[in-house]
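Sample A.
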Amino acid sequence: MKSFAGLRRRFPPIILLLSLLSAFPPLATDMYLPALPQLQHEWGVSFARVNLTLVAFFISYCCFLLIHGPLSDRFGRKPPLTVGITVFIAASVLCAMSVNVETMALGRFLQGAGSSAASAVVFATSKDRFSGIMRQKVFVQIGAIVATAPLLAPMLGGWILKFLTWHWIFVLQAGLGCLALVGVYFMRETLPGKSTAGLLSVFIGYARLLTNQGYVRQLLLFSLIGMPLFAFIGGSADLYMNIMGYSAQGYSYFFAFNSMAFILAPLTFSRVSRHHSVRLLIPLAFCGMLMGGLALLLPILPLPWRLALPMLWTTFCFSFCRPAGNNLILEEVSTDVGSASSLMVFFYFVVGASGIWIFSHDWQDKQQVLALMVLLVATVALFLWFLHAILPGPGSENRADAQGNPKG
């Protein structure tokens, strides 16, 4: 009982619920990645066409993010969240019943529309309930829990494919949606003063955000570094299964190996950030990504480790700075928080979807393309980081507090 009480104090129900909601995108994507080559052969289509089911999810997810955020500012956090999760559950059932790639793409489009409500509201709810360094700690906690999704999801998908059929992957996703819906029902509303403005004026908040130079710079910076990670996620099944010849279950183990970085990095950041400033840690993480990109280019190790180990390190560096990055972005705003949260996740996934699209082309050496992606975005990220330090935006007075240092 004491151990349960300690666990409850460390991870309160609201943290667990926010983590489950944050995990919707990786759960909806990574769990069925091992099934992509099987769907390709079962329906007799190209891998690029099957990959359109991934793209359909991300396009819908990004577009509806821009809708759910302002709606959560206008009507509160719970109503759009309830509707979105309900849509996700229905879409998961449609995916499970798919008989061709077109039906699957439609189901994935609706899954993206529903799960985007969860992502939009999670960061806005965190902004409502927590502030400053406490919010950064909450983001790290959520990041550590959510990191188990890309670790376990492909393994679950691989085991389901071994004993059942791919249809059951989406049945499981529908069940997780039902669990989240119950949690949202019992969650208290975190937005005490809902906006009384008309919907048009609420959506105009996006225009206000785009005039916030500090917010825009941080937004571009922390969205860009996700591009090679999305490219790897979208193309990993092709790399390990079609090119290297591993089975669905073998691929899931390599994917899970890479996903360990999503768990280790936030925990490492949580400890290291107690003694060192975020201003130092984040550019060091970008330099680490540069090292990962160089390691992908050098033929020092045999395959598959020449791909697996550098991507583990690159993923670690990305995940190390991601929670603090989310906090720094939101510290740049004090109003239109729902819209700011939506726009933040929107840019992150739009850039990521573009990475998937670029990487899905029939390149002669895909690992080299991945390495060049990592090197390019890490270099640009370092430039934007130092540019942001030189040209502080309107939210600069909040940054010291965001990093755990006294203001002034």
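Sample B.
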Amino acid sequence: MKALNIASILLFETTPDLTLVFMLLFIVGLAGIFRKSGLKWWWALVPCYRGFQLSSCAGRESEGRMYFLTSLAVVALSITGILVLKQQGDNLSGTAVLLTILVLTVRIARFFYSIRIFMGLIEVYGVKKRWLWLCLTSYTSWIPLVIWGWSNAYQPGWKVEDIKALLAKLAHQGSATVMDKGLTVNLKDRTVTENFQKKVLLRDIHMAIPQGHMVLLLGGSGAGKTTFLNAVNGYEKANAEVMLNGSNMYTQYKKMQYEVGFVPQSEMMRGKNTVINTLMDAAKLRLPMDVSAADRKARVEEVMEIFGLTPVKNNLVEKLSGGQKKRLSISMEFISNPSLFILDEPDSGLDGVMARELFEQLRKIADTGKIVIVITHTPDRVIDLFDDVIVLAKDSARTGRLAFYGSIEDARKFFGRERMEQIVKSVNRVEEGGDGLADEFVMKYAKEVA
């Protein structure tokens, strides 16, 4: 009996609480999924690793790695428990109880990873989320696998080899030519380490933005917009070369910090301070140390005039209107007269009229030869003021990719959508209310620029 239990654990990665029929149907379903995804069907026979292969079909390889490790742990702990019970004559002991707790803990962790993998499969096959209910227990999880794997009515949106080809294509994508005047970004990747494994946030983003251009940055939640901007301004370095007017943002960061202005979404100003004192404090921080007090004051007066703050220069910040606070927040970064001006949702909380006035001011700044990059969730009301658009999309591997960079009109033709909100919807994942076409457009753009 012990030998049968161990064999069941090795083959099915579980204690023998399921009937043999359910276990075999699960394997049959996996074989069908693998076949449709372009993998060898016999991977379904390989214990533990077949879970990782299933995650490849679902575009959830990071979850698949953890599923694989927890499956190995379940097998090891379960076999150890059986051998311990055999030595102790099935008598309950502290060791047996501890092993039981460990097995349950690891199986719970594996369960959550399996749910994320099944969610990926639901997206790949374009089925309703209610299918997930069948994936919650070992007694029913074989049902969707068999149906999706062997019914011609269900086909995956992409195959594993397609994603590998996409990665290879983008990995060899040519770099943007460095311009003497303007911003050139050649970003290979931006990674972080989570739970002892490397996660790629951004990959293969190349572009050259000329001086005097006002650029819209689009992308759904999690596409990497803020990560990209932080990489560009040097706040969070990536495996990249970022050149601004011929100077390297990373190797010459001390010199270049005055050339970049970044306005975050949140306003960081003291309410009890006056407008002019707020800007004077900003000037001390953002202008080089060798700038005289008279020149600092002259620059503050100039910036207040540009942004229409002179009439309220002696007012307390807390007494300003929402639009005035936004202009003051932008003025604080504009003090240093940056060549690159980055703004994260500067129109947040503003009505249409106030937002329009703000963006018209940003357009004037770009017309002086500056590069202005803006994130906004309501781009269509001011789209006529922009020159170009950057579209970032989260691919099936959940990595931020460049789906498009070019003029507004070219973007409309490329995506076949008139409005910018529709473009964002097209690259958003299905589970986020989008059309799930990120991989398609990332591949299409890669082919066009290759």
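B remarks: The beta strands are 183-194, 197-209, 214-218, 239-244, 247-248, 260-263, 340-344, 371-375, 388-394, 400-407. The two ends are 61 Å apart (CA to CA).
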